[in-house]
Design goal:
The chain has 18 helices and 13 strands. Strand 10, helix 18 and strand 11 form a beta-alpha-beta unit. By secondary structure, it is α/β, with parallel strands linked by helices. The strands form two sheets. Strands 7-6-8-9-10-11-13-12 form an eight-stranded mixed β-sheet. Strands 2-3-4-1-5 form a five-stranded parallel β-sheet, sandwiched between helices.
Length: 446
């Protein structure tokens, strides 16, 4: 059993809502939504019914068409079919993969108003127009996002619940962990980067620390994503595939901004915009937008046409990069484990930072300015985050670095709006030249 932080969020919703809202768990396929929903139901309710709309029989689907007007009959048939007794205010009904049957989601308004039971929905691609175009979205829905396991959850899965409190303490005090502990944590973090946080991959790896088994699990997930593209992006699936398959190549470049010219000389953003939106809404990728003028705020100056496209799970990126080769040919595993990353493979560290920053933010931002005539004016900042009313630039360094000229220029140009400045790197905590240096594994605390 994998311990997940979202569980506390489900309990908090139950206690606060008291049946006045349903809860929608939104997340990518295979991120663990169904599993955590059932664990929550078993522990927190007297009984529950889980309806999986990915394979629900016709008899159940017909209930939502023929009997939803008579809820007494509706619930009676539901209990009979699943051989489960439902108790007023003590039972939970789960609509699993509800995007497969939008009519059930529309009924939430009336089920919540009836007040007899609690309702939990899980969904992938739930914001896509195709999955909501024929229904009225219920206002009685609360939403919570579910992500792959974060680094702390990965340590829990390994049986370690004592290290991360120390990491958090050192982050808050800005004190180093010490050479021995930092080396141990970085070793665990490198495993996390390679395996990722998809539950099936984590469980496969932990059964004997088998990277190949984890890789096999990740290949299945990537194939599932491709099947979803073919099914739910009908009409422009070729463009979604083109964008998705080019992600590793784009991230391997020094300038990680997605260049559509790599997809064809005539490629324009307006032609591929829906593809980027699809991948982002499916939570397969984490889009990062260029905030062209941090003086006026990140969202206000965001240029949606110039974006970086990170994989939502770095372990999937590792496998996606070598998808056409056998596991034994995947050089990234050796490079990461032995800290031998070159500049191209450093994409993994920037990707995992994006993954960790996304945990607390609905959108990611970066800053990029090019000046071909005057190279001294060129500035590239990997990420921008807000801390209170101030903006904090974040640079990612995957190995030994010698300078941070872009960060220095950015701090000078935007000094009036900048608070802290961060460099995330492979070393221990330190503050140097007014810049806070943090180990990469602390990114999720920012």
């Amino acid at each position: 059993m994998l311990k997940r932080k979202i569980y506390d969020g489900l309990v908090a919703w139950k206690n606060k809502s008291q049946g006045t809202t349903a809860l929608m768990i939104d997340g990518a396929r295979r991120v663990g939504k169904s599993y955590i929903s059932e664990q929550f139901a078993k522990a927190e309710y007297k009984s529950y019914i889980l309806i999986d709309f990915g394979q629900a029989p016709k008899d159940i689907l017909d209930l939502f068409i023929n009997d939803s007007g008579d809820l007494d009959l509706f619930f009676a048939k539901l209990q009979s079919f699943y051989s489960t007794t439902l108790y007023r205010r003590e039972s939970l009904i789960i609509f699993d993969e509800v995007q497969q049957y939008p009519r059930a989601r529309q009924l939430i308004k009336y089920l919540v108003a009836d007040g007899r039971f609690d309702y939990l929905e899980t969904g992938s691609l739930i914001r896509l127009k195709k999955n909501v175009q024929d229904i009225i979205i219920p206002s009685e829905e609360d939403h919570i996002e579910m992500f792959p396991l974060d680094f702390e959850e990965f340590l829990w899965a390994k049986g370690d619940e004592v290290t991360y409190p120390l990491i958090r303490q050192c982050f808050e005090s800005k004190k180093p962990l010490g050479q021995a502990i930092h080396r141990k944590v970085m070793n665990d973090f490198r495993q996390y980067v390679l395996v990722g946080g998809m539950p099936q991959a984590v469980l496969a790896y932990l059964n004997g620390k088998d990277f190949e088994a984890a890789d096999t699990a990740k290949r299945r997930i990537l194939n599932l994503y491709r099947e979803d593209v073919a099914k739910f992006a009908s009409g422009y699936e070729d463009k979604v595939f083109a964008v998705f398959d080019s992600i590793p190549g784009q991230l391997s470049k020094k300038e990680k901004k997605y260049k559509l010219s790599s997809l064809g000389k005539q490629a324009r953003f307006r032609s591929f915009q829906d593809s980027f939106v699809w991948l982002n809404e499916a939570m397969i990728v984490n889009a990062c937008f260029n905030a062209t003028d941090p003086h006026v705020g990140l969202a206000l100056s965001a240029d949606n046409a110039t974006q970086k496209c990170y994989m939502a799970d770095t372990g999937l990126l590792v496998t996606h990069t070598f998808k056409d080769n056998n596991f034994t040919d995947n050089e990234l595993y050796r490079a990461v484990l032995f800290d031998k990353l070159n500049i191209n493979e450093g994409m993994l560290m920037e990707n995992v930072v994006a993954q960790m920053l996304r945990l607390r933010r609905s959108r990611l931002y970066y800053y990029s300015q090019s000046d071909r005539r005057h190279r001294e004016n060129h500035i590239k900042i990997d990420f921008l985050i807000t801390e209170g009313k101030k903006i904090a630039p974040v640079e990612v360094k995957s190995g030994n670095y010698r300078s941070h000229s872009s960060l220095d220029k950015f701090r000078k140009r935007f000094s009036s709006v900048i608070g802290n400045s961060y460099i995330l790197y492979t070393g221990d905590v330190m503050i140097k030249h007014g810049i806070i240096h943090l180990p990469l594994y602390m990114a999720e605390l920012l």
